[in-house]
């Protein structure tokens, strides 16, 4: 009986562009001469035993080949899953890093835009406030003067002595005067007369005369000495300051 080996050739199993090599497996081929009749196969015990052994080897080789085939397919499937998982993770990490960088860059650009817009708004606000002050400078000064006058009158009205606090500084400036006329509003006339003895005691060289005039503002006075006239009315003083401020801005 003729016997030989046939070779299971090397094949490649391709899964998703990843190649897994299948090893060569030598399978013993048992050839039986078909020309011989079945009775000739068993001419003697030796041939019978050889035949049975060959059939046993053949079956074992087939089983081993099938086992290896299943192993190779299982291994290929596992490697394919690993490759898919690895590719997914690499893609995810790459995408995450790319997204983080892009997001950071966008945030930087947006932050810069917000900063530029804020600076622009501040400059516009500053320009508008400057224009407002220029356009309404006179009105603002007059308003401030009116407020100052009202506050001064309120302070003076709370105390009788305050009218005297207006008069004393003026008298200090004209201490060399010998004749002084003080004109006040009728509402303050009695207060001034009441304090006249103290004035004469303090300024002994001065001869005082007290007058009243309804045109004088309530908390103001006019002091005359020789050819000098001092207007101590708040309104007139504030108007003078206002005019100076307005003219200084021209």
TrEMBL record:
InterPro entries assigned: Flagellar_FliH/T3SS_HrpE, T3SS_Stator/FliH
The keyword Transport is assigned to this record: yes
Family note: Belongs to the FliH family.
Keyword Protein transport listed: yes
BP GO annotations: bacterial-type flagellum organization; protein transport
One Pfam family named in its UniProt record: FliH
Function field: Needed for flagellar regrowth and assembly.
Keywords: Bacterial flagellum biogenesis, Bacterial flagellum protein export, Coiled coil, Protein transport, Transport
One annotated Gene Ontology cellular component of this protein: cytosol
Record protein name field: Flagellar assembly protein FliH/Type III secretion system HrpE domain-containing protein
Residue stretches making up the Flagellar assembly protein FliH/Type III secretion system HrpE domain: 120-238
Coiled coil (UniProt feature): 8-68
């Amino acid at each position: 009986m003729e016997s030989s080996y046939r070779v299971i050739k090397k094949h490649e199993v391709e899964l998703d562009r990843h190649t897994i090599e299948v090893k060569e497996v030598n399978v013993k081929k048992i050839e039986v001469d078909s020309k011989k009749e079945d009775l000739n196969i068993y001419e003697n015990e030796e041939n019978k035993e050889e035949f049975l052994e060959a059939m046993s080897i053949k079956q074992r080789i087939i089983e081993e080949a099938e086992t290896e085939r299943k192993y190779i397919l299982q291994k290929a499937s596992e490697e394919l899953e690993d490759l898919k998982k690895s590719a997914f993770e690499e893609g995810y990490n790459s995408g995450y890093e790319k997204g983080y960088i892009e997001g950071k860059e966008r945030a930087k650009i947006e932050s810069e835009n917000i900063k530029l817009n804020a600076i622009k708004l501040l400059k516009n606000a500053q320009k508008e406030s400057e224009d407002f002050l220029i356009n309404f400078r006179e009105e603002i000064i007059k308003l401030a003067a009116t407020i100052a006058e009202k506050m001064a009158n309120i302070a003076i009205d709370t105390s009788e002595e305050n009218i005297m606090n207006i008069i004393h500084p003026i008298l200090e400036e004209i201490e060399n005067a010998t004749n002084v006329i003080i004109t006040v509003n009728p509402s303050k006339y009695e207060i001034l007369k009441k304090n006249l003895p103290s004035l004469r005691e303090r300024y002994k060289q001065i001869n005082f005369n007290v007058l009243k005039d309804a045109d004088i503002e309530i908390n103001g006075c006019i002091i005359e000495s020789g050819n000098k006239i001092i207007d101590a009315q708040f309104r007139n003083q504030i108007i003078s300051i206002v005019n100076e401020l307005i003219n200084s801005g021209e």
